[in-house]
Design brief:
Blueprint lengths: L2 H9 L4 H5 L1 E4 L2 E4 L12 H10 L5 E5 L5 H9 L4 E6 L2 H11 L3 E5 L14 E6 L14 H4 L15 H13 E10 L5 H9 L4 E7 L4 E7 L8
Helix pairs in contact: 3-4
């Protein structure tokens, strides 16, 4: 593509990463295509926490995976981990399959409905970059996001936590005892998100990195599988 054409498309609001075909994430070059959520630097914190919790043979699910950036970062650090990735959009699933190749199983569907029943009760780490933008705030987002990324990757409902509620309600039956769940939120939303998981019997803490404007709710099941 000629530079003038590239610049012309960029000024219309098309994300640079979609124009180039890749984004830098956790030291990796992750493929990105039109219609796919562009991985953010803030989400590197979620990936780092997943890596820290990951044993060599861990079963990990990258839910709402978009391009598969979180899963790619985990596999770069722990190549023997058994990774599943899922997303609701066909474009994201296609993109994640290219990025992860035969190192992971990538499936399409809505949250846990995308996963096979054989994973129920056997997930060690659930990493979720769910949409958490309040619906009314989407109109104020930059055009790169609101016009060129899937609405399903942005809209979190009235308070931004609709998908967090659904994940909290169902996660307990899918996670192994002692498992870790990681879900990104804004700093303002994190206490309310943590309370959703606490109500389902998880022990929670909030991790943050001000330099990346990153906040992650960390929820853990007790070793007995019940309330912590």
């Amino acid at each position: 593509m000629r530079l003038s054409e590239l610049l012309g498309r960029r000024v219309t609001g098309i994300p640079l990463e979609q124009l180039l075909g890749w984004a830098e994430f956790a030291g990796l070059r992750v493929g990105v295509e039109p219609g796919v959520f562009v991985p953010r630097r803030r989400t590197e914190l979620l990936a780092e926490l997943a890596i820290a919790a990951c044993s060599p043979d861990a079963v990990i699910v990258d839910m709402c995976c978009g391009s598969g950036a979180i899963g790619a970062a985990v596999l770069a650090a722990v190549p023997t981990a058994r990774l599943w990735a899922s997303d609701v959009t066909a474009a994201s699933v296609r993109c994640a399959r290219r990025n992860l190749g035969d190192r992971a199983t990538v499936v399409q569907g809505d949250l846990f409905a995308a996963l096979p029943g054989t994973l129920r009760g056997g997930i060690d780490i659930l990493a979720v970059n769910a949409p958490y933008v309040p619906s009314a705030s989407i109109a104020r987002m930059p055009p790169e996001a609101r016009l060129h990324e899937p609405h399903s990757a942005l809209d979190g409902g009235l308070d931004g936590l609709d998908v967090h509620r659904r994940v909290a309600a169902d996660a307990g039956t899918w996670l192994r005892s002692g498992a870790t769940l990681l879900i990104e939120a804004s700093a303002e939303q994190a206490p309310a998100s943590a309370a959703l998981f606490e109500a389902e019997g998880f022990a929670t803490l909030i991790a943050s990195d001000d330099s990346r404007d990153a906040t992650v709710v960390v929820a853990r099941r007790s070793a007995e599988g019940g309330p912590s």
